[in-house]
Amino acid sequence: MNQPPPLPGARPAGPGWWRGHWRWAMPWAVLWASGAAAAAVWLAVTQWAHWSRSSEPYQEAMRRARCSVELVAELGEPIEDGFLPTGSMNLVPGGGGHSQFLVHLNGPRGDARMFLQATRQQGEWDYPMLYVLAGQSEPIDLTALDDAEAARECALRECRERGDCPPGVML
Asked: What does the DSSP assignment read for 53-120?
């Protein structure tokens, strides 16, 4: 079967845009999609870091770490936390919840890892496991018998006020 003759004044259809430009359009499409995926992952990671670092258990653990005379003697001051804590946090309606974090700590004299486990009952956090591993030394325990009292105390500030801090901790 033969094709009908073209209409007068009509141009024959060209090969199409994609056929003429796929060699440069395909790499750009792949790069754009990869960049969008990387941006989405980066956004999720930074949001997790921000959310976890602003949580009450994380803030209390960092406060206790910065107030620990033993930890300041080991790492020096200031004690800074790493960018991305690992772990999980689960809050349930009614004031309950559970939190676990592994936080990297940095100081002028070295690095350490802080392990945090907290449970929440009736809106109050309890810290049954909170310790720091720094170098080859023994674990530094940051738990307290009374978490409400520990939230108001800072052993480092108190020893500086009394003037009886170990060498290397006094300012």
From this structure: HTSHHHHHHHHHHHH-HHHHHHH-SS-EE-S--EEEEEEETTTEEEEEEEEEEEETTEEEEEEEEEEE
